[in-house]
Amino acid sequence: MKISKTRLLPLAEALLVTFLWSTSYILIKIGLEEINPLAFAAYRYTIASVVLIVPIFYWHKKYLVSLGLRRILVFLLLGFTGFFIAQGLQFFGLYYLQPVTVTFILNLTPVFVLILSALFLKEVPSSIQLVGIALTLCGVLVFFHDSLLVFEEVIGIVVTLVSGIGWATYMIISKYYLRENKENVITLTACSMALGSLILLGTTSLTGNITMVSFSGWFIMIWLSVVNTALAFVLWNHALKTLRVYEQSILQNTMLIQITLLAYVFLHEPLILRKILGMVMVFIGVLIAQVRPR
């Protein structure tokens, strides 16, 4: 049993994306001090979708014009689940709950992905991969054991859980269309993100949550939009063409390790033995989950 060489590049892409998304947690928390969470999500994904759509419109205008109703509906579903539900509600989760609580809940997302991928994609993990996934989730429980998890905010818990389910659904649908070569990575990412951002913008406007942003706020917004969103989502979906959905989803649990180490280095937050043990278990579990029997 080993990790195939053909999967090393997709794994590297997905891990790079998890690192970018780990840095997003800090930037989002800073931005939420002045920007409404719904407006924050709407601005971020609108800018990112423009970055991706403009080149496609310039070089492949006929392709966009010729999109049929079926494909538009698929992109609309992806935009709704992957951006309005998954990303928009995650902002609200961070607004209502502590980041540690949101992180804990979202680390359970691979469970949703595992169930949905087995049902709809027939991607069933091997016994050794199940051991890795189980070890990863046990590591998450060890890491957060006795942490200050605040669960009083029912709204925050519900929206964060729905956010995780939305993300799982987005990955399953994306994998199906990428696996069957029915869509290319950039088009699928750009069109779904554009439609999702339109839903976010419309909701933001209708609810009166349009927010003015300061200069420093725009700096954070543009960085998140271009690097941590436009680039990151293209790399993530490109890796999804090769990796199985549950394999890639479990990689997101490494964000727990990355966020903790970033906080230790830059915020001087202490590292205790329990968290170190949890991170080691997560790391080993994720590694085992990437091993497919030949």
Structure description:
The protein is mainly alpha-helical. The chain is 78% helix and 0% strand. Helix 2 runs antiparallel to helix 4. The radius of gyration is 19 Å and the shape is globular.
Largest pleated sheet: none
β-strand percent reads under 5%
How many structural units, i.e. domains?
1
Give the helix proportion (percent range): over 70%
Layout: helices, strands, pairs:
Elements: H1 8-31, H2 37-59, H3 61-65, H4 69-96, H5 99-106, H6 109-120, H7 127-144, H8 154-179, H9 185-206, H10 215-240, H11 245-251, H12 254-266, H13 273-289
Helix pairs in contact: 1-10, 1-12, 2-4, 2-9, 2-10, 4-8, 4-9, 6-8, 6-11, 7-13, 9-10
Write out key terms for the chains shown.
mainly alpha; 0% strand; 13 helices; 294 residues; globular
